[in-house]
């Protein structure tokens, strides 16, 4: 089986994939920490989705991975779409999880500029904990929220602002029809971050894309329902 590369989302980190350890029973699994986030918080942040994609491609090359399966969550889903665009010959199967094809969503709860100003005013840690709560159906009461929020709080203010700028400037919709990797779209039906319209666009536009919707979850299906998430991903990757 090909190795699996996991790319976390905005204010995420490799530690948020702890419940996905079973995916490594029969394959190598590599979870990256993007510059400015998680264990790479001290690194200089990147301010474009294309720049993040190029960085991850260099990182997996450093690990000796030539061809691999790829899973991206949220902003990480944008990054992996860009990775496929930059190096389509390297990606076998693709999982787009809790993500979309545009960086600025219609009807966003507040303008990106407002989010940047709030981050500057509130500070990185408070911003991370506030936003991490929205990823769970039961917000701060979710069992996995504290650990997830602790990882999110490692994000630097520079990385938060750079990530918001990166998403603001990115749109990948025109490239969806050219994706040739076998693709699974995975979404929690209570996701507050990416509405169904964004998930449906990926599913209907990427040639041959398959769809899995998990009920009773928000933006963190891999933490809220890890057994279901792992089974869906494992079965998809195991298919010929």
TrEMBL record:
Keyword Hydrolase annotated: yes
Presence of keyword Hydrolase: yes
InterPro entries: AB_hydrolase_1, AB_hydrolase_fold, AB_hydrolase_sf
Keywords assigned: Hydrolase
GO molecular function, one term: hydrolase activity
AB hydrolase-1 domain sequence ranges: 4-229
Gene3D superfamilies: alpha/beta hydrolase
Domain of life: Bacteria
Cross-referenced PANTHER family: HYDROLASE, PUTATIVE (AFU_ORTHOLOGUE AFUA_2G14860)-RELATED, MONOACYLGLYCEROL LIPASE
Name of the molecule in the record: Alpha/beta hydrolase
Source taxonomy: Bacteria, Pseudomonadati, Pseudomonadota, Alphaproteobacteria, Rhodobacterales
């Amino acid at each position: 089986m090909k190795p699996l590369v996991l790319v976390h989302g905005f204010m995420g980190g490799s530690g948020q994939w702890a419940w996905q350890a079973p995916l490594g029973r029969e394959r190598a699994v590599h979870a990256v920490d993007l510059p400015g986030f998680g264990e790479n918080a001290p690194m200089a942040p990147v301010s474009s989705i294309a720049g993040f994609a190029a960085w991850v491609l260099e990182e997996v090359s450093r690990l000796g991975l030539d061809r691999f399966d790829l899973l991206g969550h949220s902003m990480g889903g944008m990054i992996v779409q860009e990775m496929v665009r930059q190096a389509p010959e390297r990606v076998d199967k693709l999982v787009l999880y809790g993500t979309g094809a545009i960086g600025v969503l219609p009807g966003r709860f507040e303008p990106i500029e407002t989010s940047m100003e709030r981050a500057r005013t509130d500070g990185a840690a408070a911003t991370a904990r506030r936003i991490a709560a929205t990823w769970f159906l039961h917000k701060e009461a979710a069992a996995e929220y504290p650990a997830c929020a602790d990882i999110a709080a490692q994000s630097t203010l520079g990385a938060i602002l750079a990530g918001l700028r990166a998403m603001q400037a990115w749109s990948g919709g025109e490239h969806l029809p050219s994706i040739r990797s076998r693709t699974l779209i995975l979404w929690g039906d209570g996701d507050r971050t990416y509405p169904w319209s964004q998930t449906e666009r990926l599913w209907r536009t990427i040639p041959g894309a398959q769809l899995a919707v998990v009920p009773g979850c928000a933006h963190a299906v891999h933490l809220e329902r890890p057994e279901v998430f792992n089974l869906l991903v494992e079965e998809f990757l195991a298919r010929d």
